[in-house]
Structure formats: structure tokens, C-alpha cells
């Protein structure tokens, strides 16, 4: 490993980039980036209600929620344009950090909304693993009888998710072990859990760094579409051929298979065509980030008033609503490419995002809370931790054979709906010692 290689991975694009368009063409690309831009009208509405009447918590939350959806899409659009001009490592970090959810978490952390922070972290993993991955399998399964993906890389991802679940469950097991048989809250136990969380966060960050090195350097071929363990996708067989026992697959020339060469590698690689100039990309990132930060602040501020009536809980807002709006752009991307038989890319978006949240975002936010003197720990709500464990267990069973179909996708989506319904009625942990064991956030 050399310094020049690290510099290449950070700042050298993987593919050649075509000349950037002009200012007018860039502005047109921004305006027509998505039909979701129609929802931008809710930005001034949410701001107006916030300044006019802060007691309209429901309206402020709804309008801010709708306003963040197109902003999330524009932020993803600008991030993709910037990632096109840098190396794989920096592009992955940009996609992990420059998302609406990341900004939500930081704002909620600074306002001591620790329940929202923890619920959003768990909810983001559940959303990617069950809803996004399930939609990918289901959408691809409509066109293909079975779709194949890299089993080795997927099993490694499953192992990484498993260790992250262990890191989430251990603090809860530690808490119940040290407080069993005691009366009241133990301040020493709370401090121990806080210190324990800081240590685990640093270890998870080290694991994530090792995972990046493994994925981008030592075993980069394992994560490509030309990986040797990818099973070929199978199309549906016409009814007349089905009686004869014939199958239809995506054929690859035998000579290419023998030589280990994918058809795409035989053709010269075309340069990527940017839709924005570099200055327009940076400007769009700056403007959208500011808009997201302000709108997300109104959104977070309205949560307490929204949940005071008891019609909706903080757990449901954090677990279900915020992850959906924060990851909306990733949902669309993953599903659209799965229909094109690029399931490896879909898994990279869905499972890869879950790994980034579990091994990078969670420990980073915990470490940031440590720096800001906010007592954010890895002691998550017991019910949320169990839901995460069961979800990871189900996904591990689904992907272990290296292929997918529409029924597996429907199973994952239905499991997400079951969890969403459960969390809608879940009032949060009723164990008072669970909340009082940790230091107060100020």
C-alpha cells in the first residue's frame, strides 16, 4: 500500500470524464433532474408556517417532510456528479455522509433528541435491508424468473451486518446483567455503558476502514459485475417451451467464459458524461445542504409537538418516516437498476448502505456525541434491537443461495410492513430504569 495509490483512490476517477456542460445546460439539468422537483413548493410553505405559527406542529412536520423529499433527490444528484470526478473511496464516503439522513442525525443530536437519533439509525438499516432490497428483488423478479448476484460478497456483507447487530445487542445485554436485582438506576452502570459505547464505536470505525481496503484494493474483483461466482439470471420461459423443459438465460459466449472476460470488457469503455459543471455541482451541494439543514431543523423541532397527542410515537417517526424520506433517492436508484438485471449494483446500494450506516454512521454519530458531550450510546431500545436482529437473520437466509426471485422480495417487503405496523403502536420502552440509567443530555 503506497501513498500514491491512496491518492489515486481518493482523487482519481475510475472512468474517464467527458467535458462538462455549460451554465445554461447545467441549470436545465437541475430543473429537469426529477419530477420530485414539483415538491419544492413545500419549502417556502414549511418555512412560512414555522415563522408564522410554531404551534402548528402537524402542518410544519408534514410540509417539512414533503419538502425534504425533492431536496434529498437533488442532494443525491449533486453527490453523484461530484463522485464522478473523484476516486472510489472518496465517492463512497461522500455517498455515506452527504445524505439528508446524516444531516437529520446531526441536528437531532445537537438538540438532544437522542431517541430520534437512535430510532433513525435502526430504521435506516431496516429500510435498506427489507424495503429497498425487497423492492429490488420484486421488481427484478417481474422480468426475470431468477436473478443472480455475487454470493461471496453477499455472504461477507452478511457477516459484517451480523457483527454490527452484535455490537447493538451487547450493550443491552450488559445493562440487563449489571442491573438485575438492583433497585433504582445505577449511575455507575450508565457511565460504564457510555464508555463501552465509545470503545465499540472506535472498533467499528476500524472495521469499516478495513472493509473499504478489502473492497477497493485486496479483493476489488469480488464486488464487480464480472465476478466468477455470479449466477446467470434466468428469464421466464414461454408456456410452449415450458412443456418441453427448456429454459431461457442471459447467454454469454463460451469463449468469453473460458477466458474469464465479460462481454462489456471487450468494448472500449465510454467516458462518463457529467450533467453539471464542477462549479455548478459545488454550488448545488452548498445550496441544497443549507436548505436541508434548515428544513430538517424545523422537522426535528416539530416532532415533540407532533407526538404529544399520542396519535403517533417518536419511535414510529424515527424508525419509519425519517429513514424513508432520507433515503428516497437511494430507493429509486436501487429499484431502477434491478429491473435492468444489475442486481449486484442494487445490492451495493441496499446492503452497502446498511453496512455504511452500521459500521460508519452509527459509530461516527456516537463519537460525535462524545466530542459534543452528548451522552449518545449504543444502548438501543430493546424492541428495536430485536427487530434489527430478526431482519438481519431473515436477509441472511434469503441471500445465502446467491439468487433471488419475486417471492423473496415480497417476503422482505411484507416483513417491513409488519414491523412498521408494530412500531406504529409501540409506545417505546416502558422500563423507567432503561431511560434513567444514562446521563442526562444537556
Automatic annotation (TrEMBL):
What is the role of this chain? Has a role in promoting intracellular calcium ion sequestration via the exchange of calcium ions for hydrogen ions across the vacuolar membrane. Involved also in manganese ion homeostasis via its uptake into the vacuole.
User: Cross-referenced PANTHER family, in alphabetical order?
Assistant: CA(2+)_H(+) EXCHANGER, PUTATIVE (EUROFUNG)-RELATED, VACUOLAR CALCIUM ION TRANSPORTER
- Record family assignment: Belongs to the Ca(2+):cation antiporter (CaCA) (TC 2.A.19) family.
- Gene Ontology cellular component terms for the protein in this record: endomembrane system; fungal-type vacuole membrane
**Annotated TM spans:** 23-47, 59-78, 90-109, 121-144, 156-176, 196-214, 276-296, 316-337, 349-372, 378-399, 406-426
- What is the name of the protein in this document? Vacuolar calcium ion transporter
Q: Please list the residue ranges annotated as the Sodium/calcium exchanger membrane region domain.
A: 58-216, 282-424
Report the domain of life of the source organism.
Answer: Eukaryota
Predominant subcellular localization, coarse grouping? membrane
Identify its membrane topology class: Multi-pass membrane protein
Q: Which GO terms describe its molecular function?
A: calcium:proton antiporter activity
Query: Keywords in UniProt for this one?
Result: Antiport, Calcium, Calcium transport, Ion transport, Membrane, Transmembrane, Transmembrane helix, Transport, Vacuole
Annotated GO biological process = intracellular calcium ion homeostasis
Q: Name one Pfam family in it.
A: Na_Ca_ex
- What is the annotated localization of this protein? Endomembrane system; Vacuole membrane
Region: Disordered, residue numbers: 241-270
- Print the organism lineage: Eukaryota, Fungi, Dikarya, Basidiomycota, Agaricomycotina
Amino acid at each position: 500500500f503506497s501513498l500514491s495509490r491512496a491518492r489515486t483512490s481518493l482523487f482519481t476517477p475510475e472512468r474517464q470524464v467527458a467535458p462538462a456542460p455549460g451554465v445554461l445546460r447545467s441549470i436545465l439539468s437541475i430543473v429537469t433532474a426529477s419530477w420530485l422537483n414539483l415538491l419544492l413548493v413545500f419549502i417556502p410553505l414549511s418555512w412560512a408556517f414555522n415563522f408564522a405559527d410554531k404551534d402548528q406542529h402537524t402542518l410544519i412536520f408534514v410540509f417539512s417532510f414533503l419538502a425534504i423529499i425533492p431536496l434529498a433527490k437533488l442532494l443525491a444528484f449533486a453527490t453523484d456528479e461530484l463522485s464522478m470526478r473523484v476516486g472510489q473511496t472518496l465517492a463512497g464516503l461522500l455517498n455515506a455522509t452527504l445524505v439528508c439522513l446524516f444531516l437529520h442525525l446531526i441536528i437531532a443530536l445537537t438538540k438532544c433528541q437522542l431517541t430520534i437519533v437512535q430510532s433513525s439509525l435502526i430504521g435506516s438499516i431496516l429500510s435498506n435491508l427489507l424495503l429497498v432490497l425487497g423492492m429490488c428483488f420484486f421488481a427484478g423478479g417481474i422480468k426475470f424468473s431468477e436473478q443472480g448476484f455475487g454470493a461471496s460478497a453477499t455472504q461477507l456483507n452478511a457477516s459484517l451486518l451480523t457483527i454490527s447487530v452484535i455490537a447493538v445487542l451487547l450493550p443491552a445485554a450488559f445493562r440487563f446483567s449489571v442491573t438485575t436485582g438492583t433497585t433504582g438506576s445505577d449511575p455507575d452502570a450508565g457511565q460504564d455503558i457510555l464508555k463501552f459505547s465509545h470503545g465499540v464505536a472506535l472498533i467499528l470505525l476500524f472495521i469499516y476502514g478495513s472493509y473499504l481496503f478489502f473492497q477497493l484494493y485486496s479483493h476489488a474483483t469480488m464486488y464487480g459485475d464480472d465476478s466468477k461466482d455470479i449466477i446467470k439470471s434466468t428469464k421466464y420461459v414461454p408456456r410452449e417451451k415450458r412443456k418441453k423443459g427448456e429454459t431461457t438465460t442471459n447467454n454469454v459466449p463460451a469463449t468469453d467464459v473460458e477466458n474469464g472476460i465479460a462481454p462489456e470488457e471487450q468494448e472500449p469503455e465510454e467516458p462518463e458524461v457529467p450533467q453539471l459543471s464542477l462549479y455548478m455541482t459545488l454550488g448545488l451541494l452548498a445550496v441544497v445542504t443549507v436548505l436541508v439543514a434548515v428544513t430538517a431543523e424545523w422537522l426535528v423541532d416539530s416532532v415533540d409537538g407532533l407526538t404529544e397527542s399520542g396519535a403517533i410515537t417518536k419511535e414510529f417517526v424515527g424508525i419509519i418516516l425519517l429513514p424513508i424520506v432520507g433515503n428516497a433517492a437511494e430507493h429509486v436508484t436501487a429499484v431502477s437498476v434491478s429491473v435492468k438485471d444489475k442486481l449486484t449494483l442494487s445490492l451495493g446500494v441496499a446492503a452497502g448502505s446498511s453496512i455504511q450506516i452500521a459500521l460508519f454512521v452509527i459509530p461516527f454519530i456516537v463519537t460525535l456525541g462524545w466530542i459534543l458531550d452528548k451522552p449518545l450510546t449504543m444502548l438501543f431500545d430493546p424492541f428495536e434491537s430485536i427487530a434489527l436482529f430478526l431482519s438481519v437473520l431473515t436477509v441472511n437466509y434469503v441471500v445465502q443461495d446467491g439468487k433471488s426471485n419475486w417471492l423473496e422480495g415480497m417476503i422482505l417487503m411484507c416483513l417491513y410492513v409488519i414491523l412498521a405496523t408494530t412500531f406504529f403502536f409501540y409506545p417505546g420502552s416502558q422500563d423507567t430504569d432503561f431511560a434513567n440509567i444514562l446521563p442526562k443530555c444537556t
